[in-house]
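Predict structure. Chain length: 578.
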Amino acid sequence: MIKKKLFILLPLFLLLNVAEAQMDLNELANADSYHRVAQIKGTENLLKDYFSGISNKSDTLYVVLCPLMFCPRCEAEINVVQELLYMRNPDNPMVLIASSPNKQAAQKYVAKKFYFDDVIYDTELSFKSFLAFRTEEPRIPFIMKIDRKSGRLLTGGDYLVINDEFADALVRHTEPMPYYGEMWEGIISFNSATSKCDDGHYKKAKIFGRMAVPSDDNDIVSNITFPKISKGCLSFADELDNSIYLYSLSENADNLSFIGKYIPTESEELMFVSIDHEQYFQMRDNNMALAMCLTGFMINPDTLAFSVSLPNLKYEENDIAYFNAPAIILQNIHNEEERDLLPLDLFGSTDSTMFITHEGFYYADDLKLLFLSSVKGYPFFELSDEKQNVFEESFYNETPLYMVFDANKKMIGHIGQLGKIHKDLHLGYAYCAPKITSRGNTIAVTDGTSGIITIYDNKDFRKPLFTIEVFNISTDDFSIDSTIYGTDEYAYQFQDNFQNMIIDILMDSKNIYTLSIENGCYFKKTYNKQGKLKNTVVIPNTIDAYQLEITGLCLVKNKTLVTGFYYDKKNHNMVLLD
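Prediction complete.
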């Protein structure tokens, strides 16, 4: 049964939505929505089997499919939808599909945040056997209505309006949703291209180290995101625990020891909260507000730097306005009292056409410089904004990848540029995955998808020393539908084409290293300091029948290694490959 605390904040949430009469839910689910879901034709029996264990035997199921913590603030709508439907019919069965690889961690997370009598913990993405998505997998919660008797999805989508009219329309809706392909096209398969990764042409990397990532009942590792090995430590963001976990790597690189986990303190979390704090805590308890931990790494042997997105709430015209307040926290891992928070005025640090993100930040300890990835234009601003129109040639005169800040947090310049392919296809910063590294006075930057790495000296961020072409990409590799030129839909057509990517870059005293995925194969390439290719090693993406998630490069015992992770249903494991 749904607990009474669910009913506290519904009126506040509804103030944020606009009423919309005569809703056609299937039309709304597929109009101007990037996130879409539909049933695959001929999967009626698969759908019936999937929900066969639900305790309530009603034919009609209201289902929320939630990739846990993929879009944490989106999860606020789940309790609201529950309440709206509960008020209309307390006996209607509601089911949560909790998508996460670690069932134990998912159970702990769901028990803390949601109230469902029936939960399906789907660790294998089994719902993809009967549901198709516009993205590789769902990235936001989907609200669905299912007729279990016929095995049909009646409606489902990313509904932007959650209010009484929506709930009434959902209860009334009885017609099956058209199958995938009948209502929208262009599902992204994301299957790797056929390739001969192990054909003997390249040397194959060998296992240098392999170890379990320690986990216990108090600190369950749910999923490893943005892992980084630096200064002898492994750090990563744990999705469901919403914390930065830190481990020390043993001298022989065969064992990990837990150091601690790091989150914003309560005073840091409330730093930008201008509304009544009790009201904020109520919103937080109902999944409507939270501080998020994003990425972190050791910038020196004593200091962990990690980025956070803090809630920025204020009253505006008798309502609550919600913004993000990005910041970087510097934590001495030996002294918890030695801690510094750097708030980032992302819009105030440069002209109004630029936006600085803080998820992909980098600190060069040798240079005492902070690099924050920067973007302008689509997809971060509307195409209707003439100043940001990526279809204008002038847009590409200045497309920096990182803004540079000195030790006094003063912006001193920018570095890097979008690759030629983004200009040729008029894509702006879409399909851009920037990476940066440094060694001494040398800085290497890439946008990730153009295949180009640009090398700079710290004395001149605008004039590169030379470039390295890791792989080639050109407009000849793309089929372009010119009929949608100038629209938001235009960029979507290229999702299948941007599969090749520079995943990471690293430098030591002698070489420049890259980790890339090309035609479904992972490669570590070694270049000399002049950019000449010395050797290429192919990186296996499976180990003992487990799929390896290849994540980056690291320097361990004076070797540049590739890191990979896999989950064996008991432990998350880290593999180091040479």
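Summary: The first strand starts at residue 37 and ends at 39.
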